[in-house]
Amino acid sequence: MLELYYVEDDRNIAFAVKEYLEQRNFAVTVCATLAQAKRLLEGHVPSCVLLDWNMPDGQGDALCRWIRGRWKELPVIFLTVRGDSPDVVAGFQNGADDYVVKPFELEVLYSRIRALLRRSGNMAEQYLSCDGILLDQNRHTVFLHAQEIMLSEAEYQLLLYLMQNKGRTVTRERILAQVWDVKGNYVNDNTLTVTMKRLRDKLAQPSCLKTVRSVGYRMEDSL
Fold first, then answer.
1. CATH superfamily placement of domain 2-125
2. Can you give the pTM of this predicted structure?
3. Which of 17, 46, 112, 185 lies 20 to 30 Å (CA to CA) from residue 103?
4. For residues 131 and 147, what is the distance between their CA atoms, to the nearest angstrom?
């Protein structure tokens, strides 16, 4: 299922768009303010962002610039009333991928979203997230609440494996086999313990990284 954040303060419009897109296999989260959208994006990156131009706490181009500073490829579509169009065109040229003028037909909006996703691919597959931890698989980078965290290769691979299995308990033996032994490098059980401690310290002891006593570890959203 494709995930979409819809930044819109008009409840009636938001409900209509959300209902329509969810009938077409989208998971839609509505954000009533730019600040709320930022908080959600810091914890999880969706497949696409629909962004209303005029919001209670600012204009959509501010959020678009903020997004582009972090995720250059994340698809963004502006939604605007006709009178805003010149400003939106400027915003479009400075970072958004497309814009749709209100009032719009839901079928038209849907077709524009699908066309954009066909061109850009599913961005959500590039990122793995858990609470405020965000892992970019393409760039081999990790962020905690939008701040980059420098990890060793072993720490990165351990976090990657846990996040790829988010919601499932993985045994210590399985982790050792997948993170270390798969490369032909035998390590003892203490290596995992030390690496896990360092990883937790660098991630500020995240509550989403849980120890399953006598079994292994599990990552799951706690928010």
1. Response regulator (3.40.50.2300)
2. 0.75
3. 46
4. 14
Backbone dihedral angles phi then psi of residue 201, each to the nearest 5 degrees: -60, -45
Whole-number Å distance between alpha carbons of 77 and 100: 7
CA distances from residue 77 to 40, 70, 88, 135 in whole angstroms, order as listed: 17, 17, 10, 24
CB within 8 Å of 167: residues ≥ 6 apart: 218, 219, 220
Per-domain residue ranges for the chain? 2-125, 127-219
- Check: CATH 1.10.10.10 for 127-219? yes
Model confidence pLDDT, tens digit, residues 75-120: 999 988 765 555 656 655 557 888 888 889 999 999 999 999 888 7
pLDDT 10s digits, 134-178: 898 888 999 998 789 999 999 999 999 999 999 999 999 999 988
pLDDT digits (tens, 9 = 90+) for 128-140: 888 889 898 888 9
How many CB atoms are closer than 10 A to CB 161? 17
Instruction: Find all residues with CB under 8 Å of 6, minimum gap 6, and list them.
Output: 14, 17, 18, 28, 29, 30, 31, 49, 50
